[in-house]
Write a structure and sequence with these properties.
The protein is mainly alpha-helical. 37% of the residues lie in helices and 0% in strands. Helix 1 packs parallel to helix 3 and helix 1 crosses helix 4.
Length: 131
């Protein structure tokens, strides 16, 4: 199985800017509901910046799908492996009701460059992407 390499693109950064703005707007309400929530990591998919997680179309579409469908999105930062993404958690905590729905696109780990299943975890970048 081939892993899909995350690469930042102009379109990915545009998507990332919107999700980061939504998360910035959601953070105060989320913190009122769960003050102990850890901050977003510096390279969070939900933090605007010139980094892969906020600029990769695959990561951004996976993050959006997780928000829309109520699926957990995990932090990609190696020292927070296995933890939920704080940006995703902020967005979920700010919801007033669970208005989840299924979206039509697959997760990036459900497709690879050859069109077969891949083993990339949701919210997980390849180690080489963090360099």
């Amino acid at each position: 199985m081939t892993k899909v390499r995350n690469v930042a693109t102009p379109e990915g950064h545009e998507l990332g800017a919107h999700l980061a703005r939504f998360c910035d707007d959601a953070e105060p309400k989320a913190r009122l509901r769960f003050p102990e929530l850890p901050p977003r990591c510096n390279s969070c998919a939900f933090r605007k910046g010139n980094h892969v997680a906020n600029g990769s179309p695959e990561t951004q579409m996976d993050a959006l799908k997780c928000l829309m469908e109520g699926v957990e999105f995990h932090c990609h930062q190696p020292d927070r492996a296995g933890h939920l993404c704080s940006g995703w958690a902020m967005m979920m905590l700010a919801k007033d009701n669970p208005d989840f729905r299924t979206v039509v696109w697959p997760f990036s780990d459900e497709i690879s460059a050859e069109g077969t299943d891949s083993n990339v975890s949701r919210g997980t970048l390849l180690d080489s992407d963090l360099a």
